[in-house]
Amino acid sequence: MTKMNGRNHNVTLAVAFVIGCLIMLLFLLNKTHETLEDSRSALSTLEDKYASLVKQFESLYEYKERLEHSFMSFKEKKSAVLSEADTVKSELAVLKSSHKNEIQRLHDELDACRRREEMAVIHRSQKDDALLSPSSLVAQLPSMPISPVEDVHSNSAKEASGIKVISSLKNIHQNQSDSNKGVPQPSMDPNVDLAGNVMV
């Protein structure tokens, strides 16, 4: 009887131990399963984040490529604009120098024309004064040859003709003087133009 009780007690302990081990195994399996599920969920989240990062990296790489292309295009355009600007500057400098020389040449020609015109006006005025001066005509009359065989009537006719010529020249000179009233006469000074302005 005592032996039977001892065997039953050992069996009970063995069964209790086995049951305890099974419970521990079930608990460990449950924890392992939960940990595995958490790991799978974390892995899925990490995969999503990785895919998002890959897309962002691709977008950044494409943006970088576009920026590099835009920068190269801008650099080429800038070089072309600078080259064109240098060309335009050189052309403007040449045109400016050419226009300056042309203006100086025209000024010189204008000054030369003014001087020639002033000299021509002065010479013409002096010539007209000399031709229309009665004193010069009177001074030329005694030098006219007179034949001693001419009679008194012919001398009188010549004197009358000379007086008529002198009178006609006086009238012409008077008419020219009247027509030139109010008109500025050319100056004899070569440094003064027709309008009376002093040239430097």
From TrEMBL:
Positions with biased composition (Polar residues): 172-182
Disordered as annotated region, ranges: 172-200
Bilayer-crossing regions: 12-29
Superkingdom: Eukaryota
Name of the protein described by the UniProt record: Uncharacterized protein
Keywords assigned by UniProt, alphabetized: Coiled coil, Membrane, Transmembrane, Transmembrane helix
Coiled coil: 29-56
